[in-house]
Design goal:
By secondary structure, the chain is mainly α. The protein has a domain of 49 residues. Helix content is 74%, strand content 0%.
């Protein structure tokens, strides 16, 4: 709160300093679990997996329908869709992991629970 004897510039400087401190405190308390983008990325990854499978099945069925190689086109389309969607999911997960490491840093090591001590 500005003091009555403060000049306008001093009051603005103090408010800027308080705002910077508030922003730093809020960022320090932020949790990666509360990030809405993480949920969005998870749903996008799941949709990619399901879409890749269904797309491969559709292409395989179409190939079988026109060429008459039933069930081999369907099986190969399923395997192709599974492979492509798995590759895309792994690539997407590594990008999400890199983004979280950049934003929050590396996670501390897990505690040793072997009970050897």
């Amino acid at each position: 709160m500005p003091q009555p004897e403060d000049t306008r510039e001093e009051a603005l400087r103090r408010l800027d300093k308080d705002l910077d401190a508030f922003d730093a405190k809020r960022k320090a308390q932020a949790s990666p679990l509360g990030d809405a983008r993480a949920a969005s990325d998870g749903y996008r990854m799941l949709a990619g997996l399901i879409g890749g499978l269904l797309g491969g099945l559709g292409l395989g069925w179409t190939f079988d329908h026109f060429v008459g190689t039933s069930p081999w086109g369907l099986i190969s389309g399923l395997l192709l869709g599974l492979g492509v969607s798995t590759y895309a999911a792994i690539r997407n997960a590594s990008q999400m992991s890199a983004r979280m490491v950049e934003k929050y840093g590396t996670a501390p090591p897990a505690p040793d629970t072997d009970g050897d001590e």
